[in-house]
């Protein structure tokens, strides 16, 4: 029995030897001579520390780690809190990078590493644009046409980025480097925030599984796809998700039933953000929105109204008392709602967007008459 156990142990060790191999990287970090850097590995949804390395006097460093066949690893080098290099290491791969302590880097030796660098740079540029627009929004009158234009620009940037990520995923179906794209966020809001994004998760997981059947990243992608598919309506077909013309919103109505912005069937939609606790906004419902709704409903006007009230009971009372006939939903997260950042909402009241099936209407009304004129033009 002892011999048998030794034989089995030897066979397992030999199998492990064949299934794993050393992968490594070497690089330079400018202005970090003699300093410590930390090597981390992505463990699906969290980072684990692999080692701490001291940078040589010439700025160089190197590292090796075992990587299983078919299970590439996402490996990162940090200088303090700054990520200075990102790499994908597959069995036997050798990657080189040049970086500085501010986070700028170039990488060579792997097509997946090249793509990962592009993914991270694109994401950083997108976040920088949105942060810049958010800052500009704080410098202007929240109810001005200038503020409205900035909010539209923020949303346009999001839609353009979302579409560019779909394009990147479709153009690189077998690269493991696309995995982080699916988990990018804008504030607390995932870039891939729609139920129909299950299609992209599912297709990516199936494609990557043909190359990396044992990868934990691919398994996680499959689980996320399954979870999102459960949120799809029965009438949705997995073969043909359309690109969004505006960011999706899905929130509960008075009866707790979730309502989607994309399911509103009008030719012209007023997307209105408000809070029921502000009397002037309740007056806007009765004095402006209700007359417009009654006048143009038969021609295709619809209203999707989003409340940011933590006190849902008070919101429900106002909606019931006003007998509002349109789709009215509430985000009880209040000012912590991710939709505030997503749509670039600086303040209430009068935070609304005008939509058609083609997307945002690039016009802004300064008063009720101008608002009606815009509606009338689109609903002739």
Question: How many helices?
Answer: 9
User: What's the total number of strands?
Assistant: 17
Q: Which structural class do the helices and strands define?
A: alpha+beta
**Helical proportion, percent range:** 25-40%
Give a verbal description of the structure:
It is a single chain. With 380 residues, the protein is an alpha+beta fold. Helix content is 38%, strand content 26%. The chain contains 9 helices and 17 strands. The strands form 5 sheets. The chain has a 5-stranded mixed β-sheet with strand order 15-14-13-16-17, with helices on one face. A 4-stranded mixed β-sheet has the order 4-1-7-8. The protein has a 4-stranded antiparallel β-sheet with strand order 3-2-5-6. Helix 2 packs antiparallel against helix 3 (145-171) and helix 4 (198-209) packs antiparallel against helix 5 (216-229). The longest helix has 27 residues, at 111-137. It starts with a helix and ends with a helix. 32% of the residues are buried. The model is unreliable at 1-19 and 233-243 (pLDDT under 50).
Helix and strand arrangement:
Layout: H1 2-19, E1 20-30, E2 36-42, E3 47-54, E4 60-68, E5 73-79, E6 82-89, E7 94-100, E8 105-108, H2 111-137, H3 145-171, E9 185-186, E10 189-190, H4 198-209, H5 216-229, E11 250-252, E12 258-260, E13 268-274, H6 279-296, E14 301-307, H7 312-322, E15 327-330, H8 338-342, E16 351-356, E17 359-360, H9 368-378
Parallel strand pairs: 1-7, 13-14, 14-15
Antiparallel strand pairs: 1-4, 2-3, 2-5, 5-6, 7-8, 9-10, 11-12, 13-16, 16-17
Helix pairs in contact: 2-3, 4-5
